[in-house]
Structure formats: C-alpha cells, structure tokens
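Summary for the steering committee. The consortium agreed at its last meeting that each partner would contribute one worked example illustrating the joint modelling workflow. Our contribution is presented below. We chose a case with several input lines so that the handling of multiple components could be demonstrated. No manual editing was applied between input and output; the record is shown as generated.
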Amino acid sequence: MTDLNTNPIGEIEAIAVVEDPRSQWWDVWDQFKTHKGAVLGLAFFVLVILLVLVGPHLWTIAPNHIDIRAKNQGMSLAHPMGTDQLGRDTFAQMLSGGRVSLAVGVVAMALSLFVGTLVGVLAGYFRRIDGLLMRFTDLFLALPLLPLLLVIIMLFRDTLRAAFGPETGIFILIVFVIGITSWMQTARIVRGDVLALKQQEFVLAARSIGTPPHRMILRHVLPNVMSPIMVSATLGIANAIITESALSFLGLGFPSDFPTWGRLLFDSTNFMSLHPARVIWPGLAISLTVLSVNYMGDGLRDALDPRIRGR
Amino acid sequence: MKMKSILLGAAAALALAPMAQAGRGDSGHLNIIYWQAVSILNPFLSGGTKDVEASSLIIEPLARYDEKGNMVPWLAKEIPSVKNGGVSKDLKSITWHIKPGIKWSDGSALTAKDAVFTANYCMAPDGGCAQKANFADVAKVEAIDDLTVKVTFSKPKPFPYGPFVGAQSPIIQAAQFKNCVGAKAPSCTEQNFHPVGTGPFVVDQFRANDVVTMKANPNYRDPNKPSFASLTFKGGGDAAAAARSVLETGEFDYAWNLQVDPTILKQMAAAGKGEVISAFGTSVERLMVNFTNPDPKLGDKRSTVEGGPHPFLSDPAVRKALSLAIDRQTISDVGYGSAGKPTCNVLPAPAIYASTANDSCLVQDIAKANKILDTAGWKRGSDGIRAKNGVRLSILYQTSTNAVRQDTQALIKQWWSEIGVETELKNIDAAVFFGGDQSSPDTFQKFFADIEMYTNNFNGTDPEAYMGSWTCKQIPSPANNWLGDNMPRYCNPAYDKLSSEMAGTADINERAKLAKAMNDMLMQDGAMIPLVHRGSVSARSKTLMGVKMNAWDSEMWNAADWYRAK
Amino acid sequence: MLNFTIRRLLFTIPTLLLISLIIFLLLDLAPNDPTGNLPLTIPAEVREQIRKALGLGDPIYVRYYRWLVQFFVNEPLNLLGEWTHSCIGDCENRLRVTSWATRSPVVDLIAERMPQTLWVVGLSYVVGILIAVPIGVYSAYRQYSWFDQLGTFISMIGFSVPTFFTGVLMIVIFSVQLRWFPSIYDTTLRVTDWSSLGAQIRQMAMPVFVLALYNAAQISRFMRASMLDNLNQDYVRTARAKGLNERVVVLVHVLRNSLIPVVTVIALGVPQVFGGAIITEQVFKVNGLGQLLIIGIQGADIPLVQTLTFIFAVLIVLFNLIADILYGILDPRIRYD
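What follows is the complete predicted structure of the assembly.
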C-alpha cells in the first residue's frame, strides 16, 4: 500500500521543486540579507577577492623583485607595508600571495568537505558500508602525514609538472594533498549527526512513503547536517591556508620565491620583534578572511534552515 | 702610604689569584643548548655532528686540533712525526705514546689496549661504524706496551693522522664495550648512552633526543678542572630559539650552530646578555654545475655521462657568465653576516692550501657577463631570455630547504635574469636531498637539475681525500648506485693525474702546491661556482669565559677550561 | 550494546594489522634515508655499510615480519618480565624494537616522553574543553549578543593564527620582555616541593595556554553550532510549554542532544594528545612525543616512526569506538544491533 502511494507523492514533490526553483533561492537570499554579519562577511570576502585579482595590475611592483638596498624597511609611501629581508615589497607579496592562498584555501576546503560529507553521509545512512568506510577513515587518521606527503610528492610531482606546468601542477598537487588529508574529521562528525538524524520521525515518515535514498539524503539529511559542515568549512579554510605554508616550508609546496599568506607569516615570525608590521599583515589577512567565511557560513546556515526562514 | 697600597694590592692579587683559577666545580652549573638534540653518545654509531660534539665532553682522542687548526697532543705525549721517529720512514706505520697516569672516570687506568679495542670496534664488519673512514687503509693496530699504540697501514700514508685524532675518532673503554662489537653494537643501549670516558665530564642522565645532564669527572687528570660542577646539554627547537635563549633571555650559556638571519642575531645580541662568536673551517657554500644532461626525456640516462653533455652548461662561456653575475659579498652579508666571507675557491683553508689565483670573481660584473654571452652567440629572445640554436638558457636550480638558502636562490635568480638567464627554483627537504635513497629522484647525487647548491667541507686539515672527490671515478651513476662525490660529473685526466700524484707525496709544501693547482683547475673550468666561505657560528653568555671557538674539532674541545666570570 | 562492542573489538584486530602494513609500506616507500642527516664528510661507502648494519638490505617482508615479532611478542614479554622482575624465555638476547638513531628500545623512549606530553598537551586539551563547552553553550543561547560576537572573534583568531606564530609571540612577550616564564621547558624537573611545583607551573603556562586556545577555538565552534540546531527543535518548545525550568531545558535537554558532533571532535582529539603537538612542542622545547615523532620522520628512523604511528592508530580506533558507544548513550534512539 505504501508502495503504491510513494510515487505520486514523490512526483508531486519533485514537480513543485522544478516549477518554482527560483523563489526558494530568493527566500534563502532574503533571509541571508537579514543577517548583518553574513552580509558584512560577504562584502569583505568579495573585496579581498577583488583586491587580489585587480590589485597586482594597479600596484605594479613585482612581488619577487629584489631591491637589496631597501631591505627591512618599515611602512612608507613607496612600500605601504614595508619590505622583507631581501627588499621585496610586502604589499605586492600580500596581493599576489592572497590570490594563491585564497584559491588553495577555498578549493582544498571544498574538496575536503565534499569527500568528508560524502563518506560521512554514506557511512551514517547505509549500515552495510558503515564499518568499511569508518575503518578507512581510521586508516587515514592513522597515517603519518609527513611520509605520506613525501611519497605523494615523489610519485606525482614530476608527472603533474610535465602535464600542467610548474605552477598549475603544484597547485593541483597541493590542493589534492590538503584535501585528501583533512576530510576525516568532517566525515566522522557528519556520520554521527546522520546516525542521530536517521532515527527522527520525519526521516522515518519520509522513508515510510518510499522516498528513494538519494532524494532522502539530498532533501532531508543534508540540510539537517549543514551546521557542522559549515563549521568545518570555516575551520577548513584556515587549516588549508596554514597547511600550505607548512608544505612550502618542507619544500613540498610552491617554489620559494612564490609568496603566499601562510608563507609570509611563517617567514616573518622570526622578524617579529624587529619589524612587527611584517607579521601583522599576513596574520590579519588570514584571520579576517576566516572570520568573514565564518559569518557567511552562519548566515547561510540560518538561511537554509526552513524553521528560521519561516519566522 | 704608596708602599702600603702597593703591598695591599699585591696581597689582594695573591688572595685573588686562586679564585680566578678556581678549583673543580667552583663555577657551578653550565647550560648548553644544541637545537639539534643529541641521540646517542657513541660517535661511532652516529656520526651526526651534534652527537660527536656532545660525546667529546666525555670521551677524548689521542690528539686533536686547536682553534687555529694545529694538531695538539691530547691523551698522547706528543704528535708522532717522521722527524721524531713516531712515523716510520716508509710512511706505513705510526706509533703513539699515551700520557702516563690518565684514568677513566670509573678510576681504572687508560692503556694502549683501549685504543686497540677502539680500532677493532670500529673496523668490525656488520658494526656499521660511522667513522670507518678514519681507519681507511689500516692493516693492524697493536699495543706495544701499556702506553704505546702502533698503527700499521697497508700502503704508505703521507697523512697518517686518521685514527685517534679529532673528535670523530676518540677512544672508548675496552672493559665497558667488550660485549658490543660488530652486530651487537646497537643493542648496547646502556653503554651507548653512558660511555665511560677520560674527558672532563661524566653522563648523569641521558634522555635521547632531548637532554643530557653531566657532572664533573672525579678522576679527571687536572684536579682543578673542570670548573663547572655540572652541566645540562639541552636539545630541541630551532636555531633562532637557541640564539634567543642565550642572547635575549640568558637562560642558557652556550648555543651551537646559529644559522639565523644576521640582522636578527644582531638585534638579539643588542640585549647585551651574550655575544655571537664564529670560527672558519673549510666549509664552502657552492653551486654545483651539471656537466651532463638532466633532461627527463633521457630516462635512465638522465644526468649520466652516457646521456651526453649538458645542452648549454657544457659551454665554458655560460659557466663563466653565471659566476660573474653573482655578487658574493651581498650573499654573504644577507645570509651569513660575520659567519661568512665571499670566496672564489672550493678549498679556502687551511691558509697553506688557499689559492689566490681566482680572486677576480669577487667583483660582480653583469656587463662583462652579458658581453661574454653575446660573444659566445647566445642572443636574447623576445622574452629577454638568451638562446642559441633553439636551446634556451633556462635553469632548474635546486637546494635543500633552509631559509638562508632560499634567500640566496632568490638573489641569484634575479642576477641571472639580468644576463638573460631564466631560473626555476626548487627546494627539497634536507633528509631527502642528502638522503641518498635510491628510489628518490630528488637526491643531490642524482642531480636531476642544472644547478644545485649546498655546503661541503672536510674533517681535520688534510684535503687529499676531499680533493679526490672530483676525479672521474667518483662520478655518481646507476652503475655505482649513485655513490660518488663528483656531483658536477667533472672528468679531466689532468686533474686525476694531480690527484694520484698528491697521494704519493709526503712533503707538506709539495702537497700544498698540488692542492692549489687542483683547486685552480676546478675553478677555471667552472665545475663549481663557490659562493661563501662559511664559518660555524655560536653564541656564548657574557659570563661564560674560556671559550675558544673551534671549527676544526668539536666546539666543546676545551670545555675543561671554561669557567664562569665572577 | 555489549554485543556490538565485542564485535567491533574483534574487528579491530585485522583492521590494525592492515593499518600497520600500510604504514610500513608507506614508510619504506618514502624517499628519506637514515643517513640523510649525517655530515657530508662521511663517505658514500660508509653510509652504505651503515644502511646494511641497520638491516635495510633485507627484503621488505623480512623487515615487516621482524617488526611484527618484535612488537607483538618480544615487547609484551619484556614488559611482563619487568613487572614480575623475572626473566621470561630468552630475555638476554631478545630483540626489542630498536630505534635507528638512538639504538635504544623505542618503547623506553616513548615511556620517557609520556610525562611531559601528558602534562602539557593533555592538560591543554582538558583546559580547552572546559573553556569551550560553556562558551559554546552560552554563545548559542545568546546568539548575536556581544558575548557571542566576542567569542566568535577570539576563536577565529585562535584558529586562524597558527601556533608557530602565537608561540613565538608569547616567548617574545613573556620570556624576553617581561621575564615571567622560561622559554625552554626543562624535562628533567621533578616536582618535589612547592618551589619546584611553581617552576613546573611556570614552564607549562605558555605552551598550555597556546594549545588550549587553539583547541577551545575549534571545539567551541562545533558546540555552538550544534546547540543552535537543537534550540529550535520542537522538543525544546514542548519542554518550555510544559513549564520546565529554563536551566533544565538548556543544560539537560538541549545540551545532551547537542553533544554528538562535539563528542566526535573530542574523541578524535584524544589520540592527538598522545601524538603530541609537534609545532608547540618544538617552539617551547617540550620534547614530548610530537618532537620524538618528527625527529624520527626527519631521520627516517623507520622502527621508531612505525611503532609510534601504530600506537597512535590503536588509540584512534579505540577512541572512535568509544565515541560510537557514547552516541548510543547520549541518544538512546541510536542502535547498532
């Protein structure tokens, strides 16, 4: 009997979604707009992106141009953020470094979220593959990171470099490495939430009317595990930016004359008491970016929650 | 009145004299930080500089090098030579006489048997002795009597001071290590962590890769030394943190190997707690030029002689121009400060071996470098990069990961761009780069790049083995498992001839002439581009006296004479 | 539940064996080398002999088997012998898992490192949780209040500014300028009286603070998000409608239901406590397990790294099991059978 009823209802539901998909996203956007922090975060994020995209065309000093006579300078008109120990302009480095750091941060975070959520939802929802997937997660948690990285780099660096050129090749490698080594926490958390969620009445109800698994997951499960995913996203972006700097330091990342925010912060740590400004800029850039992503995540989660949106 | 004050002064001086020359333990506690932590106190099983230096506080050789690089007798009465009869006329044996009355820290007497045991311990097969090179060509070591050791070599040795000389070749106690020979060596944890020695200190507590605490040796030969009653030998952190703990916070008295940006060191030293000290040995930071073709398309023949010569580095004009474009003074100032001197030689010291024939490279001359390349037919393309017959001057430049090296790379890249040479920088984790793993493409022996940079040096003061590194048979290749020291793959019969001539020459002045000739040949052929003669740099607290910084031996070599300023 | 636990425990044995094999293969494949950190003055032939003496010449399955025997048979026997002060079997010649760099038994090295790691990393973890949970709960309860905004700001700074930076900053301020705390941790310090306890607290203050900030930042974010999800649920409205005390509603009903993601994060973090905090230990020279691991990795000390990572893997599997059991306790609807 339930089987008979399933399909019509499912279809009606589907039709409703297809008929008026825009209004739902407009609702989300309207709700998002009411969240002051989220709007501010979005504005800041867009500003930073514009700055790092357009900035290098306006501020024409090359980030790796060395002017040894102007080394270790403080803030001035010629160098608004000072210079480093070789006389490279910090502002130019921040602009071109931001491009790389943001790209690595966002893409690696997205990859890690995708893998983590996929594994977490599948493990939590399908009892049969739960054990296998979770032991797989345990394995990844247990692998020593550094030797793993050394092996990955040894096996793939030259192939990727040959196929995509030095910069794109290494970008793909870094994003892959960070993504592949940071999804486990998300997976475990999402699985825990899904396990709890599966027992709730609305899931039972949806299942009892025969909703197919993929629609169950996309329509009922995923929206309800958005909060931990959003937190993971915020933390993940910071994590990716910092990890990238650690990779470069180990000689596994971008070439050494290729600035990124994490690297600028790392390199300037020892100069902290000599030139405090040098540490503050990259530190501030990373923190504010992460903060803006956090507020955007907050706003998005509220906006996606039908209970809040209705209010 | 005047007389009285003089007398009083004299009396005060008399009273003070014993205080200045304090007795054993009067200076209290000494804090030393080696940011690379000590793993083991048996230098035969490690070879790491940190381990050799820490163990040199405990165990000692028969002779060692002083801060000027002169050999001084330590546990031996005098340095054997042909003149005093200690070295045989045919140069095939050397006889050492041990000072009488020297005791191990457990109270037993040091005898020639201990030296014989030490040699057999290191030469035992399966032992994996890291200092085996010091015992090269040794045929036999025997005890003539209780205090006389005779080392016989299998062939004439113009420089017979390998065994028992310097911090790398100390004497261990036969009684303690008798069950630890050969394959059993690694299982003797207790012995390796708490060696019995003749040196000024004995191990109290040993925590591998963390900290060693030591106490003054109660049986040390000089009853008034060491002045310190105990010491802590801490490891961990990085060079900047170690420097800070001596120069800024004053928590430690001595910090080793401070390769930190010179501006930071200077600023730390301004706090007034300590001072930066340096000493120059034989270390030279240099660029190795690949004479063979590292093109990945060559597959197994990559960077081997069979793979053919390098497409553009085989042109002497290019090598010359690359060297001329570099401002060595700036590299030295930016990266090394007081611990660096620009150099044009790969063999910069001892003074007797140092050539002056190549000093013209000290002056950077971009215009001249450009002219050389123009004359040689390398024309700038539309992108500013020179090319000839379709070969672009595009260099892959690799080195180990290290902040100073990356700064040097950035500087050189800029200068080379000014002469129309494109450079891609690559840095590799030091453990991989210097690791020699056969399966890794990134080792310095495989040299899958056009230029690579690192520092090398030699132990002691005799350059024969070191200069032998660039003979044809030392070229690394798959046939010898890439085990060879001739990274540039430089092969010149004239050079090989000089090298074998040196092995048969005993006279020191003749040897010096040969060594200089070899150095000049390497430099003029541009097989290497030397950059900076590097000193070791350490820091001492202003209250720590008696430190004589030594680049030829362990920095701890005269720790028995150290004391605390009152 | 008991059934489930036993089944899972039995299942961990093949899992762990497989993990140990994969770790071993990975370490063997890694391009670093135990002679890589030796001075270049040691010639290539001598390096080759050192490698042979370490057993690197043997085929990989021999080395893996050797490690298995040493770790699963010899080490437990040795431990048993030490406890009972007796000699079990051939205790004189029994080969234990021996580190290549220090030539000493790995298990002894680990035991030596435990105290400082547990003191510093463990304490910072506890402090982090104790700070994070109340902050997360209150931030969610008073969402968008000034307290919430401040908490968000601080935790974002805490998370996005890495410990290599905060650690050095603390040293420059508190060791160099103010001279309150030592910049170097003394692992030989024994707490015997009040003054040595004071010294221990002073040397722990900075690393514990740095790590606690980092941990608290992360955990409080998950706590807050999870609380927010639950505060809007129907059962909360029902509970309030029933006239339950607000305190009971929040602290009993909502908190308990919100703990699942937090328990996951906390459980995942516990093995990492034993893994040490590599960067923080390095900055403050604590020389705990994290520093031991990183030195081992840099020196390609395979027996050391293999043993440490394996113990780490055991803890991970164990704490994930504990987390799963806790889910069932926190949310009785979750059933595994």
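Chain A is about 80% helix and 0% strand. Chain A touches chain C through 58 residues (CB under 8 Å).
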